[in-house]
Design brief:
Layout lengths: L1 H24 L26 E3 L8 E7 L5 E9 L4 E5 L8 E2 L6 E4 L4 E8 L5 E11 L3 E12 L14 E13 L5 E3 L3 H7 L4 H9 L5 H16 L2
């Protein structure tokens, strides 16, 4: 087992060290959010409040995952979680480790969990801008690609205005922005609802029949739809 894991672990160690040197160069300031253009993300360049509730992690705790390097058969079993504030995927070789390591931001590496994959991707959005960062890949087909970008949202603290009011600390939470691309087109931000999915996909009798018999309310619903969409397109 050690001989199998050594090449991939050595590879990760080299790039993790390089990534850490970049992080150190920030001087304590966070990098710009990849989805800052949407105007919804907490601005990472601002200081994090000393007193806040909630969390800026997408997962509550480290979850089982696998690090996969493109073109290599070796895989490394780890525990992962995503820091939406710093746009970093952290990992541990086991849950008992005190400190987490940072996964390198390299396009040839993917970080797989039982439910989704983390990938580092540069992609175009509707206005022609390019965005780079970690995204969750929910579906990666020939005709359609469905991503999610978790972003950190800061609700500012609420100071008491009168003696009867209570102080409310700032609250940090994570919200996912969903992105869909059809063919070679740019990624469009969508909500998990039929109206927006219909608008993004090319009109067809197949889709009309599909929506009559299926609801679109969750990520899983969208993935099932896109799988059916791909199968239908491949039979044309």
């Amino acid at each position: 087992m050690k001989t199998v894991l050594l090449p991939i672990f050595s590879f990760l160690f080299i790039f993790s060290a390089n990534a850490q040197s970049v992080i150190d160069s920030w001087g304590g300031e966070f990098p710009v959010s990849p989805l800052e253009e949407y105007g919804k993300a907490y601005r990472p360049g601002l200081p994090v409040p000393a007193d806040y509730t909630g969390s800026f992690y997408f997962e509550e705790d480290f979850i089982p995952g696998v690090i996969v390097v493109e073109g290599k058969e070796e895989q490394l079993n780890v525990f992962l979680r995503y820091n939406a504030l710093k746009d970093q995927v952290e990992y541990k070789l086991n849950r008992e480790e005190n400190e987490a390591r940072l996964l390198p931001t390299i396009k040839t590496i993917s970080y797989r969990t039982p439910a989704y994959d983390y990938i580092w991707k540069t992609f175009k959005i509707e206005d022609g801008k390019e965005i780079s960062g970690f995204v969750i890949s929910h579906f990666n087909g020939e005709e359609a690609k469905f991503l999610a970008k978790p972003i950190a949202i800061l609700q500012p603290e609420v100071l008491p205005r009168t003696g009867y009011d209570r102080y409310k600390p700032a609250n940090m939470s994570v919200k996912s922005v969903y992105l869909l691309s059809i063919g070679e087109g740019p990624f469009k931000e969508i909500k998990l609802e039929e109206k927006q999915i219909r608008k993004a996909l090319p009109a067809s009798s197949f889709l009309n029949d599909y929506f009559l018999n299926h609801k679109i309310e969750t990520v899983e619903d969208v993935v099932k739809l896109l799988r059916s969409f791909e199968e239908q397109r491949s039979n044309i």
